[in-house]
Amino acid sequence: MFAAALVDDLLADLPRTALWVLAAVSAAGWLLAASAVTWFTRPRLPAAGPTGEQPGPGTLALGNFLVHRGALTPTAVSGVVLDLAARRLVAVEEIGDGRQLVRYFPQRAAAVSLDPVEATVLELIRGRLGPAGTVPVGELSLGDETAASRWWKRFDAEVVAEGRRLGLLRRRWPTGARLAMALGLLVPAVFAALAVESGDAVQRLAGATGDGTDLGGGSAVALFGYVALLAFANSRLRAWVTTPLGDTAAARWLGARTFFAEQPGLAEAPPAAVVVRGRHLAAAVALGVAPVAAQRLPIGPQRDDVAWVQRGGLWREVTIRYPPGRRRSVGLELAILWSLAQLAAGLLGVWADSWFVRTIGVALLDAVRSNDAMPWALRIGLPAVFLIVPTGFAAASALLALRSVRDLAGGLADLGHTTELVGPVLRAPTAVDDEGHRAPTGFLAVDDGRSDELLGVYCPKLGARQGQRVRLVITPRLGVVRHGEILPGNG
């Protein structure tokens, strides 16, 4: 009894308001640090190795994964299908009008040991076969959106497993970093636990009784919030980057891609040419330099984040990223004012969150903890919510402020400067509107021939369609469109 009373005296003397503020601030700092580490550990592409026909280790799907910064593209599946055809496990036949038919040879397939990645693609073919043991390429669909997503996740997981087995991939966040993240999250959890325990101790010293005021209740609340935040963070850390051995392998695959891109006739070869071209055509498709075969052997619908482009007589597969938060067609000056408004909103959000925690939040927590009639689950769950929601709001406000500082700096640097973006529109994405109709999003992915990674620009008033050539005058950093025109001679 004496020990318990002594603990209560010590806990009751703790500054609860300051502890809640420290819990919110340290949790927001943890989220910002995790975001910064995520940014600095993003996948990077090594320089291409020596040009040669010998690709890197692993399946063609793994090669596709490595040359696209750890993001599989649809040509990975098409390349594996052609690789199976080059090994005579299936055949790709022309049936007229540019249509293709895939024929399956079960005896040959049963006699060969396949990698799990290849077995998954062969299973897809087997699942679509007709009575004659054939399937039109158009029927090699991944199914509806849900089924396609499920299949693609499985395929991606098997490619990652192959890369790890060969020592080419590692977790983006190694065990030490994940442990440091978990330990760092303990800091706000401890502050929150002490704050709740302090309030309970005050009530116990005042003579209150009940399950909600027992010693250890605050620790249970903090543990609940800790586990919830840690589970959320862990779900965001399932990414992979190359090891030093993986960088060497990626460089070899990039060198092989250069070699196949320069081979005469590969870019225009149809899928049935695999009988003659063999695994060279399969590798060219998987690495994104054989557009005709890839386009005639599509697996799944067209994607807005991947496209084909011809440069200097060579076809390349490029990836496209659409920036968030710039869906309004405003001038640069308004974009700068908008960034200032976002900065003010972010700072105001951080201040408001701090004020809420110091005043209303503490009062609400004390009210919940002192209500003996409230169910036990609510007495534990509501304080956890009072901890998690303000912490998330503070982190979101801080991130908004940091992003607005970045955009503000870019906008100020863009004043008086423009650059031209001239080229074909590779993608003009659409989306379902409120009435259920598909409408243009206003974004355009324009290829200027400079990079294999394109950034979409927002230009809804131009009304350009996919395939048209456009000339856009944009600011170099924010990409705000100053002027745009559709060039003559487009279809």
Explain what you see.
This protein is α+β, with helices and mostly antiparallel strands and 491 residues long. The protein has 3 domains: 2-39 and 176-237 and 329-414, no CATH class; 60-171 and 239-321; 419-486, OB fold (Dihydrolipoamide Acetyltransferase, E2P). The protein contains 15 helices and 15 strands. The protein has helices spanning 2-12, 16-40, 60-67, 75-86, 106-110, 116-127, 145-165, 175-205, 217-235, 244-261, 274-277, 279-286, 291-296, 332-370, 376-414; strands at residues 90-94, 100-104, 134-136, 169-171, 240-242, 306-311, 314-321, 419-427, 430-432, 438-440, 443-446, 453-455, 457-458, 469-474, 481-486. A 5-stranded antiparallel sheet has the order 13-11-8-14-15, with no helix packed on it. A 3-stranded antiparallel sheet has the order 1-2-3, with helices on one face. Strands 6-7-12 form a 3-stranded mixed sheet, with no helix packed on it. Strand 1 and strand 2 form a beta hairpin. Helix 1 packs across helix 8 (175-205), helix 6 (116-127) packs antiparallel against helix 7 and helix 9 crosses helix 15. 38% of the residues are buried. Residues 1-7 have low confidence and may be disordered.
